Amino acid sequence: MEPRPRSFYWLTAFFVLFVIFLYGPTITIGILSFQGPQGGLTFPMNGVSFHWFHNLFEQQAVGDIWGAFRRSFALGLMVMVATVVISVMAGLAFRKRFAGSGALFYLTIASLVIPSILVSLGVGLIFNQVGAKVHWSSSGFGAQLTWTLPFGLLIMFAVFNRFDKRFEEAARDQGATPWQTIRHVVLPIIAPSVVGVALFGFSLSYDEFARTLLTAGSHNTLPLEIFGMTTNVTKPVIYALGTLTTVFSFLIIVAFLGTLWVIGKRRRDRA
Amino acid sequence: MSLSKSETLRGWALASPLVLVLLAFLVLPIVMIVIVSFWQATEFSIVPAFSLENYEFLFTSPVTYKVFWATFRYALITWATTLLIGFTVAYYLAFHIRSSHMQTVLFLVCTIPFLTSNIIRMISWIPFLGRNGIANQALIGMGVIDQPLEWLLYSDFSVILAFVHLYTLFMIVPIFNTMMRIDRSLIEAARDNGASGWQILTNVIIPLSKPGIMIGTIFVLTLVMGDFITVRFMSGSQAANVGRLISNDISLLQYPSASATSVVLLITVLLIIGTLMRFVNIRREL
């Protein structure tokens, strides 16, 4: 191997600083959430305890965070399943040009770039005008899909742009029906990316604030609940909640990455 | 190329769930906002009577121009900063990390924060930037300053810092993606012809990374221009941008006025993105 140029070391230092910038604050509130009962929102640590985590579990101390968590989790799963199914179907559709496909593509891009608050406001207004109650599982669900579907579709585009069509041709030559080709050839090949779409769908939904603001109705999702806390809670209990949800997000990410690893390993074993 | 009827039918059938969701939760809501922007409001309800007063008020109020200017300023500064950081990080990952295994790991390290809560990531700046925060204590400890800096938190600085923290990834991913597709033999050819590292960067890599830069730009600009929560939270409600103008009207139940502002914001964003899209074919670049 040729020796590293000097720029390599400068760039490595830059990268390390960037990673510290990304993770530093989160790690800091992780540490601060173990403040003692008298501790405040900043250093120095005033003792070390689980006080603020206990505080979270006392119903009256904060709002209905457990209800909010359950709703966010359920909504995340709903959005995840819908995003996977709809994105894969649309991804398959877009593999061949069809009349109007360009317009539909630009509409999907528009869905990505239109400011979240407009979707929130518009969906809220519509439900209001037809006399329907906004609810996280109906209006909230739909509003979040306008954010997760473009991501899902863009990932599917990236996948199918790199897809080797010879596998399909081989299947067809051997007499497979179109459905058999998709079921036994296409889907297994794109499986890792589908897991990626699922991860995006769940995470984007679980953390989404703006699109749920006016569409979740009277029962808050977790991000809305947390935002409510930022305006009236001045104790490290909010850090404890932040630490817990961050740990939860990490577990979800690890679970998805683990799934990817298992898929890859199975494939290698079979080969 | 002629498109057969059956192919068109098959395409729309497969895409129909996507079409339905976008119609119901994107197109109709936007149409609704446009309609409501011409309605009138009383203190408690909205009145479906055609009027231009929302727009009249919007365009004659000096606040509007101030707030739009603030929005562009946030967007431009954030864009320039995220581009600089994003390009450097992507360049490092794509051209200086040799093993593809290590590349994946480092890429994931950058991606993971994006999948966790934005609001928590905003909150996490408080112990850093506050009056008694780590930054001030460190600076005082080093003897750089003897009074805590007040402008670190709840200022334009903290708003932009949070934007950069939240959105740099949207630059890294598309730029990294295009860089990985650059044919490495082009770089070798440049080197064989005697180009320096800097010349390779400016004459080969940057021009070939333009599509990724464009896509990242689209992401960052739209996210910052539509934002209302970061500005409200990180400025301590001191600063305003268009998103906040809208959300303030909403919290006062002034839906027609919020809708008119929304329409103007929407047109602005679509014009900017439309212009940027002329320079890049997104479908081909994925």
Automatic annotation (TrEMBL), chain A:
<keyword id="KW-0813">Transport</keyword>
<keyword id="KW-1133">Transmembrane helix</keyword>
<keyword id="KW-0812">Transmembrane</keyword>
<feature type="transmembrane region" description="Helical">
    <location>
        <begin position="73"/>
        <end position="92"/>
    </location>
</feature>
<dbReference type="InterPro" id="IPR000515">
    <property type="entry name" value="MetI-like"/>
</dbReference>
<dbReference type="InterPro" id="IPR035906">
    <property type="entry name" value="MetI-like_sf"/>
</dbReference>
<keyword id="KW-0472">Membrane</keyword>
<dbReference type="InterPro" id="IPR051789">
    <property type="entry name" value="Bact_Polyamine_Transport"/>
</dbReference>
<feature type="transmembrane region" description="Helical">
    <location>
        <begin position="237"/>
        <end position="263"/>
    </location>
</feature>
<feature type="transmembrane region" description="Helical">
    <location>
        <begin position="104"/>
        <end position="127"/>
    </location>
</feature>
<feature type="transmembrane region" description="Helical">
    <location>
        <begin position="147"/>
        <end position="164"/>
    </location>
</feature>
<feature type="transmembrane region" description="Helical">
    <location>
        <begin position="185"/>
        <end position="206"/>
    </location>
</feature>
<feature type="transmembrane region" description="Helical">
    <location>
        <begin position="7"/>
        <end position="34"/>
    </location>
</feature>
<protein>
    <submittedName>
        <fullName>ABC transporter permease</fullName>
    </submittedName>
</protein>
<comment type="similarity">
    <text>Belongs to the binding-protein-dependent transport system permease family. CysTW subfamily.</text>
</comment>
<dbReference type="Pfam" id="PF00528">
    <property type="entry name" value="BPD_transp_1"/>
</dbReference>
<keyword id="KW-1003">Cell membrane</keyword>
<feature type="domain" description="ABC transmembrane type-1">
    <location>
        <begin position="69"/>
        <end position="256"/>
    </location>
</feature>
Automatic annotation (TrEMBL), chain B:
<feature type="transmembrane region" description="Helical">
    <location>
        <begin position="255"/>
        <end position="280"/>
    </location>
</feature>
<feature type="transmembrane region" description="Helical">
    <location>
        <begin position="12"/>
        <end position="39"/>
    </location>
</feature>
<feature type="transmembrane region" description="Helical">
    <location>
        <begin position="105"/>
        <end position="126"/>
    </location>
</feature>
<keyword id="KW-0472">Membrane</keyword>
<keyword id="KW-1133">Transmembrane helix</keyword>
<dbReference type="InterPro" id="IPR000515">
    <property type="entry name" value="MetI-like"/>
</dbReference>
<keyword id="KW-1003">Cell membrane</keyword>
<feature type="domain" description="ABC transmembrane type-1">
    <location>
        <begin position="68"/>
        <end position="276"/>
    </location>
</feature>
<feature type="transmembrane region" description="Helical">
    <location>
        <begin position="157"/>
        <end position="176"/>
    </location>
</feature>
<keyword id="KW-0812">Transmembrane</keyword>
<protein>
    <submittedName>
        <fullName>ABC transporter permease</fullName>
    </submittedName>
</protein>
<dbReference type="Pfam" id="PF00528">
    <property type="entry name" value="BPD_transp_1"/>
</dbReference>
<keyword id="KW-0813">Transport</keyword>
<comment type="similarity">
    <text>Belongs to the binding-protein-dependent transport system permease family. CysTW subfamily.</text>
</comment>
<feature type="transmembrane region" description="Helical">
    <location>
        <begin position="72"/>
        <end position="93"/>
    </location>
</feature>
<dbReference type="InterPro" id="IPR035906">
    <property type="entry name" value="MetI-like_sf"/>
</dbReference>
